[in-house]
Fold:
Amino acid sequence: MHLLGMTLSQMEIDWAFSVLRSDMEEESCVDNMRIASADDPVEVSAYEAIRDDGCCGTYDRRLVHPETGKVILVGCNYGH
Structure:
C-alpha cells in the first residue's frame, strides 16, 4: 500500500480505501494500492508513477470526501 496522502487525515484515508476495497471485492489479485490528495501536485506525480509501475489492469477513482470535501485519488493495479 502506498500512502502518498500525507496531506490527508486518517479519516479521509480510511474512507477512501474502504471505497476502493468495496469496488475491488470481486478481484482476486489486487496490488499497488495507492492514495493521494488531488490538490497536491507532488503527491499526484508520485501516484501516477506508482500506477504506471504496476502490471496488468489499473483502477483509479477520484473521490470527494463527504465530510471534508477533500478531493482524493485512490486506486490499484489488478488481475494477472
About this structure: The chain has a mean pLDDT of 91. The longest helix spans residues 10-23.
